[in-house]
Specification:
Blueprint: H1 26-37, H2 60-67, H3 71-78, H4 87-96, H5 101-112, H6 131-138, E1 145-148, E2 154-157, H7 159-164, H8 175-181, H9 183-188, H10 192-210, H11 215-227, H12 229-237, E3 249-253, E4 261-269, E5 278-284
Antiparallel strand pairs: 1-2, 1-5, 3-4, 4-5
Helix pairs in contact: 2-3, 4-5, 10-12, 11-12
Length: 287
Amino acid sequence: MAGAKAGAGDRDPARDPARDPADDGESISRLLRAWRARIDARTVPGLRGLHPGRGRLLSQRHVARLTGVSEGWYRALEAGRRQDFSESFLLRVADALRLSEAETLTLFLAVCGRRPPGSPGPAGELPELPQGVKDLLVQQTTYPAYLSDNAWNIVASNRLMGEWFPWVLRPGANLMRWALLHPEAREQMLDWEDSCARAYLAMLRVAANSDPGDAALRSLVREVLDSDADCRRIWAEEHDVVEHRDGDVFRLRLPYHGHREVRVTSHVLLPIQRQDLRFVFITPLAD
């Protein structure tokens, strides 16, 4: 900013001869400085009564105050140093720096290697689904289809999914809880242990290690293992990991089909507008 004099905490690491330009985090450091520099400190309500210093530059001290941490803690983030930065802190930084959705995504990927958590609406509601995703789900009238989040909670489903699998219409429906803990799953998913339980537990292993800070996933894994002896045994004796079940074949015996056996395959897609969700549809196989 014109007339602004940077202090020691605002020194450009790229011009610091003691710093290797290839140091991890240098790129996000430059972005954070650029994002901070575009904000006039005098326009920030949270800084009223706090002199912005020389010029209008939003300083590291200001951002630290806005995010509730020490100046040294925020400086470590902006310098690209590896620290145990929490998701809540990064979200506060994004809010303080007025980051866009894409900028917030960049911050999270650069600092902790994962996407930011979904922002719940009032009363914990999920964010509104993009219209194109809703249309695709509703207009899929040939095959059962559903949307689930990263913890396999059912976010939405089409009419056929509710007819094939009425459990998706229950409050708090969750694929893993139904498939691994509900008695009807062991009746409807044939060869339950080998074709269902082992594969789903292998998926939970991947999920449990993908984001240690995701309390919902940790709680889901603990609930499954605490609730069922078969799942505990399989978990202890297996070491397989599976990310998804795209293309897998299932043998089902559902009331919808008069309890006759049907073979189906699942297809897993990631909506580009909501990559925290899975779009899954199920197609029958020829006899």
